[in-house]
Specification:
The protein is mostly helical and 82 residues long. Helices cover 87% and strands 0% of the residues.
Length: 82
């Protein structure tokens, strides 16, 4: 009877270890997928930022030119901020 108990406990331990190992493999696969996704999103962010930078710079330059013209032209009336 005692031997049966030990065999059952051993079987239980082996099954639990196997299930735990399968869970770890699944979790590692999920973590790897998430790491790849984060890397892809970081690359996409860098590309978008690089594309947007010249456009932003152009708009800032145009705004500065408009401000300069408004400062030097007395006929320009500025709107007051709300």
């Amino acid at each position: 009877m005692r031997e049966l108990f030990y065999r059952m406990r051993d079987l239980h331990d082996r099954i639990s270890a196997r299930l735990h190992q399968d869970d770890l493999h699944a979790l590692n696969a999920r973590v790897s997928w998430l790491e790849e996704r984060v890397h892809d999103l970081e690359e996409q962010r860098r590309r978008v930022k690089a594309q947007a930078e010249p456009v932003i710079q152009e708009h800032l330059e145009k705004a500065n030119i408009a401000d300069s013209i408004a400062d030097s032209d007395p006929t320009v009336t500025r709107l007051r901020p709300r």
